Amino acid sequence: MADPKGFLNHGREVARSRPVDVRLKDWNEVYVPGSLLPIISKQASRCMDCGIPFCHNGCPLGNLIPEWNDYAYREDWTAASERLHATNNFPEFTGRLCPAPCESACVLGINQPAVTIKNVEVSIIDKAWETGDVAPQAPERLSGKTVAVIGSGPAGLAAAQQLTRAGHTVAVYERADRIGGLLRYGIPEFKMEKRHINRRIEQMRAEGTRFRTGIEIGHDIRATDLKKRYDAIVIAAGATTARDLPVPGRELKGVYQAMEYLPLANKVQEGDYVTAPVSAEGKHVVVIGGGDTGADCVGTAHRQGAASVTQLEIMPRPGDERNAASQPWPTFPMLYKVTSAHEEGGERVYSVSTTHFEGDEDGNVQWLHLTEVEFIEGRLTPKPGTERKIPAQLVTLAMGFTGTDRENGLVDQFGLDLDERGNIARDADFQTNIPGVFVAGDAGRGQSLIVWAIAEGRSAARGCDRFLTGASDLPAPIRPTDRSLMV
């Protein structure tokens, strides 16, 4: 273990953010570069000898958190990187983007601020890249088997890397023009600079993984034709069907799904555009949806120079602290969260529902009409007399996703069964009803976290490897039926 008295001697410290007025002028990550390393050894020392590390249960990857905390405390960065990569293919992704359910399950968090597990994780991997401890791991021999992975988000990349390292010849198909899925075009640059994706892709290329961009399976290549070409297929196409808002005025210009808006801003950073075709500059912006995607829209609008930004959420405002009765430790609590985007300004409004949009004579949205809502007999009900309108010249819908894309024909061409929630059904080995076709990530689980996506990719890779060879030494951190540690 680390310092036996570390949690008594040191308080919780997190990464320092750059001043708001500075970071709004660029799209770089919000944290001060290098601010973690001077404090991270002390922070890692706060990991206590708790006997049963519940952080393992909070993390679906089963990360060996006490072990790499100990190595980080001792500044043995090579050993820390090895233990980190033993369970996680892409810790630089989770260290920046994961909401850290491991910290919610930290034993120290019962009566003190939890260990900064996420900050320790990102410090270890950033140091590993700096010192050259991250290197390609090409297989010693090839199996002669071929695998197609559909989708290059975290689930698809994790499955592809695991299967490549097992000796199979793997090709990743991505319908966008660049690899990364929502990591590339859904996550703004200020949350994760895309250089982190690029160097992982180069590592995977060196290991033997092949990438095919601009190809949509089901549209550009029929699913049945793909199955003839490969010995096995892993579907990691995500749950990209966005939840819509069917209210009057939805057809007005200026009302977009979040995933129509955010990718354009990312394409500016990639050099595809000088300015985004859909921009918040000078506009009153309303973001409908209070989750992480909504916060991404808020931060993007700030950087584009919005006149105002308002974020709406239909549910009541969460509490500031864990309610021990309704959200007991070590479950993942639903708390009021202030992200870096919220620190930068804007207004957050809870317990409201949009009734309709109002436009000008040219069909451009100008106003959003809303009403307050309350729970009556377990249902959200409008409160009479609370109707009002707010200016809205750009509206983004960030209300989550309802399932995998059905319009491109992938599901129907394969003949895949769906479960009761509309996700692609799979057995204990992550195999669908079609032999040799597996599913990982949001396509099979439904909308979830990046850490679950990586765990799904690793687990599906084991099932696929066993299908191809009859046995597998690859790890499977989760089962298809496992769920987050929540009430």
Automatic annotation (TrEMBL):
Gene3D superfamilies: Alpha-helical ferredoxin (1.10.1060.10), FAD/NAD(P)-binding domain (3.50.50.60). Keywords: Amino-acid biosynthesis, Glutamate biosynthesis, Oxidoreductase. Signal peptide: none annotated. The keyword Signal does not apply. Residues 38-69 form the 4Fe-4S ferredoxin-type domain. Pathway: Amino-acid biosynthesis. Pfam families: Fer4_20, Pyr_redox_2. This is Glutamate synthase subunit beta. The lineage of its organism: Bacteria, Bacillati, Actinomycetota, Actinomycetes, Kitasatosporales.
